[in-house]
Amino acid sequence: MRLPAFLVTLVLPFVLSNASAAISVAAKSAILLDANTGQVLYKKNDTAQRAVASTQKLLTALIVAESGDLDKKFTIELIDTQCEPFKLYIKPGQTYTRRQLLHALMIRSSNDVARALARDNAGSIEAFALKMTRRMQELGGTASNFVNPNGLPASGQYSTARDMARVARMAYRNSTLRQIMNTKNYDFRFSSGKVSPLRNTNRLLRTYSFCNGMKTGYTNAAGHCLISSGSHNGRDCIAVVLGSTKGVVAEESAKLLALGLQMSPSQVKTTRLANN
Question: For residue 61, what is the domain's CATH number?
């Protein structure tokens, strides 16, 4: 027998509370929330300030997407290319649309692309970093500070699982970013005409059909990080896992999403994709 809606509303928090009490993650920080209501369903050290690696590219992408005019082309400058790998190896003088580079940013996590988008948007990396911190504050995040658009190690740069969840929730509402973050493979066409196939770095997205985004990250300081989103039976959840290890970051993220989406192990198994 199906429970009336008002009883579901009353009972669900207790069910989730009991389930979350039984779950544990090895990651240093984590949070799970309902993407629609913002209700926190699980948390662990969610307000601890730490490096979040390339997951902060989600904020870079959000600012660029919100600025609009995504089909406008701009020219790559030398300063855009001056960063550590991982890079797409775009070259000075080449021209691309913002939309093209957003795909490369979110799907392949290219650090030079993050710099190019930031410089195009704000005039300089430094000005864009200030924009990132200000946008986070507008979203209610008061425990973050950003120095660059790509998450590479930098003194004075940090965020929290809770703050990054605020960014993720806003990005989840953006139809352009939703489509890009749910793209498993993308053919990037360089100005020269060369086409490079890009594979999404998000293994969880490539493994389960209920996952529909969002962003990976890794540095020695931050550990393995993953912001993931999922949808099932009308429910939408976002999980932020920071300071994990390569072997378990996707597994722990899947476990959290399954909790929030109220999916049984057998239901999760049925969503496993054949080719991942």
Answer: 3.40.710.10
* 253 labelled catalytic: no
Q: Whole-prediction pTM value?
A: 0.91
Q: For residue 5, is it within any domain?
A: no
Catalytic residue check, 54 = yes
Bond preceding residue 214 cis, omega within 30 of 0:
yes
Q: What is the residue range of 177's domain?
A: 25-270
pLDDT in tens, 26-79: 999 999 999 999 999 999 999 999 999 999 999 999 999 999 999 999 999 999
- Tally the domains of the chain: 1
How many alpha carbons fall within 13 Å on the CB side of residue 68? 0
- How far apart are alpha carbons 16 and 263 in whole angstroms? 12
Residue 131 tokens, joined: 């924009």
The DSSP code for 4 is P
| Catalytic hit among 20, 44, 57, 131 | 57
**CB neighbours (10 Å) of residue 99?**
16
Q: Under DSSP, is residue 221 helix (H, G, I), strand (E, B) or coil? A: coil
In-domain check, residue 113: yes
